[in-house]
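User: Show me a protein chain along with its predicted structure.
Assistant: Here is one chain, sequence first, then structure tokens.
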Amino acid sequence: MSVGEVEPMPGYADLITRASTVMPSALRGCSTCGLELSKSTLLDNAYITWTEIGLFFICAVMWTQIRRGLTECLFQPFAQWCSLQPKDSAKMPESSWKLVFYTMSWSYSTYLLFFTNYTFFHDPPSVFYEWKRGMTVPTDIAIAYLIQGSFYGHSIYATVYMDAWRKDSTVMVVHHVITLALITFSYAFRFHNIGLLVLFLHDINDIQLEFTKLNVYFKTRGGGYYLINDILSNMGSVSFSITWFWFRLYWFPLKVLYATCVSSLQSVPNIPFYFFFNSLLLTLLCMNIYWFLYIVAFVAKVLTGQMKDVKDLREYEGEEGAQRAATLLKAQQQSKDAGHLNNSAETQLNNSTEGKHLQNGITKEKHL
């Protein structure tokens, strides 16, 4: 197929059939594959400067400080002003921060893919046209990579030390590590075009998730019930479920995985780290399927009447302990505002969280 011709998007059967043929053939043809070849390939094809690494760490710290500043100066005061329930007030800043970031990052990815000359979404195989090792990364895509890469570097730290601990938080840490690895290596090996498409297909679901959670928190506040937030949370939940499947389980494998598994070898027969990158992308797909099971379980509970309203699917470890910690956090905040800490509340907190520490009103184990 010529470069100027757009290849139709394949179906699941085409993806499985072509990938199961192409990948084993590529493996059989790699007679010299091994550790030594990987080292030489890494040295010959990876291009990243110390300046870029420094910018990554600076921006990762910057995101952490921005989040802390927004939490202390905006999100927490707003939650108190709205008189949210203690457990919701503890979780609201995290969702607010993520909603702000993902809205910004996804909007920028959308701009690059649909309002510039890039054709990666409509013609995914084009991501590998004219690929050359060490090729210059366009400035607009380099900015997107710096924003996303530094954010996921921050997110690894934030999941462990800042976010409320949930029962899938360990999987979330693994997700962030894999995502950061994909971002870093795809940039170094100049696979930035496909990376931009991956980011676009994933960020929209995070926007809808945090929007839905915020409306769940705000539908019961100040001792009252707000129908508009209940309606918005249900609408957000339905939209989230649909787009999760459409973007992550339909477009992601048929656009991204087909391009990386099949089309990449057509454009660049000896493309470096072919199996490594596809392994990471396949792992990301497996995680998307894992989280989709949460969504299916949620829908099943709603349809069978086991759940009457939308709740946070990513349940906390020890919900009773989380509620007790949130109550104690509120007592501490009241004492702090008065200029002193209530000794009995502090003692109770220490006793109830032995071997744990408190973050955002949620008790967390000190280890993963």
